[in-house]
Amino acid sequence: MITDQLILNAKVYNSYYKRFEPANVAVKDGRFLYVGTLGAETFTAKDTIQAEGQYMVPGLIDIHLHIESTMITPETFSYGILRHGVTTIVPEPHEMANVFGVEGVHEMIRASRDCQVDMFYAIPSSVPATPLETTGGSIEIEDIDELMETERMICLGEVMNYVEVIRDPDGKSNRILQHVRSRYPGLVIEGHTPKLLDLDLHRLIYAGIDSDHTHQSIEGLKARIAAGMFIEIQEKSMTPDVVDYLVRHAVSEHFCFVTDDVMTDSMVKTGHLDHLVRKAIAMGMAPEDAVYAATFTPARRMKMNDRGVIAPNKTADYLLLSDLDSFAIEAVYKRGAQVYDRKQPLPQPETVPRFPEHFYRSVKLSSLTADDFTVRTGLPDGRYSSRVMMVNSISTFTEEKHAEAGVKNGLLQWQESGYGLVATFERYGKNGNRAYGLIGGDTIKRGAIATTYSHDNHNLLVVGHDPEDMAVAANAVIAGQGGFCVVLDGKVIASLALPVGGILTEAPLEETAERVLGLRTAMESLGYNHYNPIMSISTHSLPVSPALKITDHGLIDVGTGRVVPLLFPLGEE
């Protein structure tokens, strides 16, 4: 029998029994034809691979991520993750949608069409994430219908405004859920349900949201699985107690691994979804179970029944591993064709502009001065209680603290408060909104940082301790049509231009990774203490991530979903 490819003497992962078996594998027309003991005596192959006992596992599948979080284009992203064994992803482009609306979604899909990695897109459901922010675009019900009619959309992306789902039956989130459930009853609906328990959690599930990828605790994990939720475990949820629970209980059908947001330098140095598989094994999970959670269960969650398995008629995406415990990838195959060989260099193809011209002109904000970081309160002089956003080194969640602050001549004396200033400026030319807050905890202790990479509205966010430094950082970002800038004593010490929508670069992977590492190092040198300082600061403006955040509308109490004042009378808690 003539086949395209024959893999001999491999230890093949059987997903249905979750075990490795010695076997030969035949591939024809990009699909697996045969898995068993028959070999060269039966099949005549154009390409014969001597596996020599290597482990053969399905290509990894990541069903929850945002390409924009890596700040590179889909083309560069595909190039970057192939070497890490990721062959299929489900990106949700709600970052670009927040800048350009449905056009941003179409353009991200268009930029993905020639990529080697299969990209099945999720429909952004929460653009903007809440009504409490200004964005460049929005996704409405009519946009969802258009995307379903014109593109291949695999699911409704994470419904982020869980407060609105629970408390406002007529709100946008519930209208979208009701529309999707009635018009597209088979469409998978993804969720975002941090910390919810008991009735609130069950009301969210009742509304049609049956997955969660946010930071898990044992209590929350058990409650979600018991209520029928599918759990998407990202690295920050891989605490010893959570992994131990997953190992010791028969819950393998109820979770998978996802990356959500990965920095470019981390991808290059540590890996992508393969890193989570490797970490799970190192933490005590059986390799067979870790592979299952990165291949079989994510494919089933997204109803991708053509992949995630090495079996007849399934897509021939697979990896060859020289060592299972360290998940050492030797080669990656896509539809039976080799796309990565550890022993061969894999140069990145030259990158060219892929987006419409106006995508490079999205920051409509004039230069700022130090005076723009003077906070005019409109209050009488005196001492007040102030809300302070406290950064947490182990989470992107913040805490709300109350501290005393003074007002003199109507101005907040923030530089005498012992805290830094966080400010945000609407950058789409819509209303000129700006807002201010105090910030403390594990953030910088001097200098300034400015960025338009600020989830999910991507307005200009500035954090600092010196108004002059803050202006320098902000103006560098404005001049570059978006990006990241770190400043100390009036000098730029690290920067990254993000001219595509203010959130992406078309620079090569290695160059971007080097600059991102420079940003991380510079932020840490100013006192930032966090496992991912870039993601930490960029979520200061995410009003669906607990507890106190800031948008151009003001400080946001995430738990109640409302704008709250920075200052209030002493004694009034």
UniProtKB/TrEMBL annotation:
Catalytic reaction annotation: adenine + H2O + H(+) = hypoxanthine + NH4(+)
GO biological process, one term: adenine catabolic process
Record bears the keyword Cell membrane: no
Annotated Pfam families: Adenine_deam_C, Amidohydro_1
Keywords tagged on the record: Hydrolase, Manganese
Source species, domain of life: Bacteria
Broad class of enzyme this protein falls into: hydrolase
The Amidohydrolase-related domain, residue ranges: 55-338
GO molecular function: adenine deaminase activity
Record domain Adenine deaminase C-terminal: where: 396-560
Required co-factors: Mn(2+)
EC annotation from Swiss-Prot or TrEMBL: 3.5.4.2
Keyword Manganese: yes
HAMAP family xrefs: Adenine_deamin (MF_01518)
Family in the record: Belongs to the metallo-dependent hydrolases superfamily. Adenine deaminase family.
Protein name: Adenine deaminase
Upper taxonomic lineage: Bacteria, Bacillati, Bacillota, Bacilli, Bacillales
